[in-house]
């Protein structure tokens, strides 16, 4: 779609802030009203729209994409199904499954993942047990019940951060730590991609693998920015 507007800017509206294109409010993909509590977030999304030249490229507007997810999915009828999917990740979470060998990879995983499991237990009283090797392990039912209660209780903005981060990293533990502000994008990338980074260091560069890692880094950076802007007070 070609750029059809001259000016993109944030402005006030009943209930918060909106983005307007030549004075007309932007709506979500499903045509819901986009109203933000954070002026900083509205300003940042308006800047994404203003930066478009020629064709509008949705992939160059990650904050707008996250806002669409927050409005159309995290606040709508899809929320229950999304909760269930995140709970499935918790039942077999990436950061619970440690390698059997080699010792140096295990040491890296322990340095990155054990603090996350401890944080989850200390902060949310959710204990997920460590597994060595690839055998499936049933996590404690009471822990999954607490995880489910936490997911259900999360407001749409925070849940959006958790949902997209889980889908990106394969770990709801990493996602919750990002949503809570315990992890920044760089630390989340290191924890989520420890195996891939180790393989590249050991066996040499691989262009497709490096591109995938770079894409994950970029998306995590956008998620971190969205998280910080949504929490900012204006």
Describe this structure in words.
It is built from 10 helices and 5 strands. It is mainly α and 234 residues long. The protein has 2 domains: 8-61, ATP12-like, CATH 3.30.2180.10; 79-231, ATP12-like fold (Orthogonal Bundle), CATH 1.10.3580.10. A 3-stranded antiparallel β-sheet has the order 1-2-3. Strands 4-5 form a two-stranded parallel sheet. The mean pLDDT is 95.
Task: Give me some keywords for this one.
234 residues, 2 domains, two-stranded parallel sheet, 5 strands, mainly alpha, 3-stranded antiparallel β-sheet, ATP12-like fold
Give the overall form: globular
CATH architecture name of the largest domain: Orthogonal Bundle
Counting helices, strands and paired strands, the structural category is: mainly alpha
Q: Which runs of at least 5 residues are low in confidence (pLDDT < 50)?
A: none
Number of E strands: 5
Distance between the termini: 33 Å
Helicity, as a percent range: 55-70%
Strand order across the largest sheet? 1-2-3
The CATH first-level class of the largest domain comes to Mainly Alpha
The description of the largest β-sheet is:
3 strands, antiparallel
Fraction in beta strands: 5-15%
Indicate the mean pLDDT: 95
Along the chain, the helix and strand elements come as EEEHHHEHEHHHHHH
> What is the fold-level CATH name, i.e. the topology of the largest domain?
ATP12-like fold
User: What's the helix count?
Assistant: 10
Radius of gyration: 19 Å
CATH superfamily of the largest domain: ATP12 ATPase
Write down the domain tally. Answer: 2
């Amino acid at each position: 779609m070609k750029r059809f507007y001259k000016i993109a800017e944030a402005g006030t509206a009943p209930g918060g802030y909106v983005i307007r294109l030549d004075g007309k409010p932007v709506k979500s993909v499903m045509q819901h009203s986009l109203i933000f509590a954070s002026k900083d977030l509205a300003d940042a999304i308006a800047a994404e729209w203003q930066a478009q030249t020629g064709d509008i490229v949705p992939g160059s507007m990650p904050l707008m994409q996250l806002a669409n997810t927050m409005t159309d999915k995290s606040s709508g009828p899809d929320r229950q199904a999304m909760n269930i999917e995140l709970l499935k990740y918790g039942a077999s979470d990436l950061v619970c499954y440690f390698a059997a060998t080699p010792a140096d990879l295990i040491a890296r995983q322990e340095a990155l993942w054990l603090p996350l499991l401890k944080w989850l237990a200390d902060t949310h009283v959710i204990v997920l047990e460590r597994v060595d090797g690839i055998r499936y392990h049933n996590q404690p039912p009471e822990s999954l019940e607490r995880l489910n209660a936490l997911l259900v209780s999360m407001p749409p903005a925070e849940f959006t951060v958790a949902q997209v981060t889980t889908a990106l990293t394969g770990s709801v533990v990493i996602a919750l730590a990002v949503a809570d502000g315990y992890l920044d994008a760089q630390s989340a990338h290191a924890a989520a991609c420890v195996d891939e980074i180790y393989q590249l260091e050991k066996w040499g560069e691989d262009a497709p693998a490096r591109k995938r890692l770079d894409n994950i880094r970029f998306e995590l950076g956008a998620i971190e920015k969205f998280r910080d802007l949504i929490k900012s007070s204006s």
